[in-house]
């Protein structure tokens, strides 16, 4: 949905999907004013026992400064809007899970490092990650894509992440 002073673009450049760009770039390369330091770093999409409560997505701020991600949202994969007053410090992580307390208890993470739905309605709308592959997309508060990861069953994708007990991890977060 393009508004005044915003155009649609394929982000990253050449992607199959269109999203709102920060400013019109007719006839020029796509330009987006979005914080690119926050990336989708890890996805647990198919736990070994198929328990969806164990699914999570980990964000990583590969920059040195904190990034305010209030109002950012996942629009593909899961449906979740980051709450107000949420930021990720430089070189720090934040986990998004449908059952934050379970993730905190299981992995011994501090509660402030894991967020997720806080009401029954939000949990119902949160969704689950596909065990067969899909695209997970994180967009900033303006709707610009900050990070997107497609994953699939088979091929070059890690077999152990598909129900084998492992998550799928970005190998070099600083290079994506």
The end-to-end distance, rounded to whole angstroms, is 27 Å
Mean pLDDT: 84
CA radius of gyration:
16 Å
Kindly report the oligomeric state of this protein.
single chain
Top keywords for this entry?
5-stranded mixed beta sheet, mainly beta, 176 residues, 13 strands
Note down, in words, how this protein is organized.
With 176 residues, the chain is mostly beta strands. The chain contains two helices and 13 strands; from the N terminus they run βββββββββαβαβββ. It has a five-stranded mixed sheet with strand order 10-9-4-3-13. The longest helix has 8 residues, at 100-107. The mean pLDDT is 84.
Compact summary:
The chain is mainly beta and 176 residues long. The protein is 9% helix and 31% strand.
Write the layout of secondary structure elements.
Blueprint: E1 8-10, E2 18-20, E3 38-44, E4 56-61, E5 67-68, E6 73-76, E7 80-81, E8 87-88, E9 92-97, H1 100-107, E10 114-115, H2 120-126, E11 133-139, E12 145-152, E13 168-169
Parallel strand pairs: 9-10
Antiparallel strand pairs: 1-2, 3-4, 3-13, 4-9, 5-8, 6-7, 6-11, 11-12
């Amino acid at each position: 949905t393009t508004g005044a002073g915003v155009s649609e673009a394929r982000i990253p450049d050449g992607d199959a999907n269109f999203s709102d760009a920060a400013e019109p770039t007719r006839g020029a390369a796509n330009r987006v004013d979005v914080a690119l330091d926050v990336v989708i770093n890890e996805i647990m999409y198919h736990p070994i026992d198929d328990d969806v409560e164990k699914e999570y997505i980990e964000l990583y701020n590969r920059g040195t400064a904190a990034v305010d991600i209030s109002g950012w949202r996942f629009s593909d994969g899961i449906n979740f809007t980051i709450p107000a007053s949420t930021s990720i410090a430089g070189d720090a992580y934040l986990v998004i899970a449908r059952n934050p307390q379970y993730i905190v208890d299981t992995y011994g993470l501090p509660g402030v490092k894991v967020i997720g739905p806080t009401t029954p309605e939000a949990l119902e709308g949160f969704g689950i990650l596909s065990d067969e592959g899909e695209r997970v997309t994180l967009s900033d508060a303006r709707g610009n894509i900050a990070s997107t990861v497609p994953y699939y069953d088979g091929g070059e994708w890690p077999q152990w992440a598909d129900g084998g007990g492992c998550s799928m991890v970005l190998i070099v977060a600083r290079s994506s």
